[in-house]
């Protein structure tokens, strides 16, 4: 395996963006669960996110969701976040909650609906100018439930036209990342159901448009690391939304269902040049903590990514390449397994301590009294977010 000290040295490059909405109330399609200490404002979401970064050193930026995180003064919000020790990251649009978007937003057959959806994204770009955000992330709920309900090709054409206008408004240093999801809430067809559709649409836009890969948005059995490899090879992987799934888009803690898959994904990210501050690939979380407490859930998530990244950095790529060229199947697989089964948790604890971070961030959070304090302080009001 590669030297542990060398691998840990590269961990300095690891940064994971956390989503503001992960700290709010969430649930299933049947019930949204309220919890004590739920943030009532975007400022309180940022405070919770800052606590995650304070204890782990892994989460320096926070993704915002518009309109859930709308404020009157984004420059002031940026300054407030900086005072907490975090920055404002990706701006996520929302065209899936208003009644007007029932039959589509950027793909709608109604020009007025498309106009409203496009204008919303143009507003998001203006917010990006104020926050200094680099990425506009678009996920669409657009699709149909029944054969013949709408013209699938026409919807792709309308999507392309809508995206072109949004793309043209981007600043020189800004990017558009288009997320895909193979089903839900549309069940017959989804307008951006797979990486190929997202790739085709972003390729047509230009070199500031990329694919966002959500690790929960694939059919069972899909080889996600192959998609990661291909998008890196094509220069079109812009960002990740990390989470975990057992059946569909479960949005569980990343690595919960299949840590070996997360390891394999990170191996391809590292091998393909997608790891590091200058790689152009943003690592983000996109999770809903329905049962567990929100802040510990985010801490656990970023630690899981860190652990699997450390293991992936241990893969002896020179020996692996030699075994692959020799056609030695068992040796190649064994090199992978040796790295994956290495328990890096003790050395990661030492690594954190050497940087002034707690060896066990979860224990440190529990001992901090932060959760008790926000449970007592945050009474009344209602946070803006999905279903709550």
UniProtKB/TrEMBL annotation:
Keywords: Cytoplasm, Isomerase, Manganese, Metal-binding, Rhamnose metabolism
Pfam families cross-referenced by the UniProt entry: RhaA
GO MF: isomerase activity
InterPro entries: L-rhamnose_isomerase (IPR050337), Rhamnose_iso-rel (IPR013457), Rhamnose_isomerase (IPR009308), Xyl_isomerase-like_sf (IPR036237)
Full protein name: L-rhamnose isomerase
Organism: Pseudarthrobacter polychromogenes
């Amino acid at each position: 395996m590669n030297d542990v000290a060398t691998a840990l040295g590269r961990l300095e490059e690891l940064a994971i963006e956390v989503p503001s909405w992960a700290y709010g109330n969430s649930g299933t399609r049947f019930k949204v669960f309220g919890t004590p200490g739920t943030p009532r404002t975007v400022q309180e979401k940022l405070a919770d996110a800052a606590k995650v970064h304070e204890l782990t050193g892994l989460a320096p930026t926070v993704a915002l969701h518009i309109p859930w995180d709308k404020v009157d003064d984004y420059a002031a919000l940026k300054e407030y976040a900086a005072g907490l020790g975090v920055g404002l990251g990706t701006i996520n649009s929302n065209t899936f909650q208003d009644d007007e978007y029932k039959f589509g937003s950027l793909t709608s057959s109604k020009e007025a609906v498309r106009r409203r959806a496009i204008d919303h994204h143009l507003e998001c770009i203006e917010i990006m100018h104020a926050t200094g955000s680099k990425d506009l992330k678009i996920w669409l709920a657009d699709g149909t439930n029944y054969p013949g309900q709408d013209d699938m090709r026409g919807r792709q054409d309308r999507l392309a036209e809508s995206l072109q206008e949004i793309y043209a408004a981007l600043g020189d240093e800004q990017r558009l990342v288009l997320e895909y999801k193979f089903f839900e809430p549309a069940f017959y067809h989804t307008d951006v159901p797979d990486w190929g559709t997202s790739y085709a649409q972003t390729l047509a836009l230009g070199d500031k448009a990329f694919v966002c890969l959500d690790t929960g948005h694939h059919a069972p059995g899909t080889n996600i690391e192959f998609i990661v490899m291909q998008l890196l090879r094509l220069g079109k992987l812009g960002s990740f939304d990390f989470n975990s799934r057992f059946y569909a888009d479960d949005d569980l803690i990343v690595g919960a269902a299949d840590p070996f898959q997360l390891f394999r994904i990170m191996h391809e990210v590292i091998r393909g040049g997608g790891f590091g501050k200058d790689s152009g690939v943003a690592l983000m979380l996109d999770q809903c903590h329905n049962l567990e407490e929100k802040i510990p859930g985010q801490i656990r998530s970023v630690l899981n990514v860190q652990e699997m990244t450390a293991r992936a950095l241990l893969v002896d790529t020179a020996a692996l390449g030699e075994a692959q060229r020799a056609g030695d199947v068992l040796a190649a697989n064994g090199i992978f397994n040796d790295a994956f089964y290495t328990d890096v948790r003790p050395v990661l604890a030492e690594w954190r301590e050497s940087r002034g971070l707690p060896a066990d961030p979860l224990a440190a959070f529990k001992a901090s009294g932060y959760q008790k304090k926000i449970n007592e302080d945050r009474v009344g009001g209602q946070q803006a977010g999905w279903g709550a």
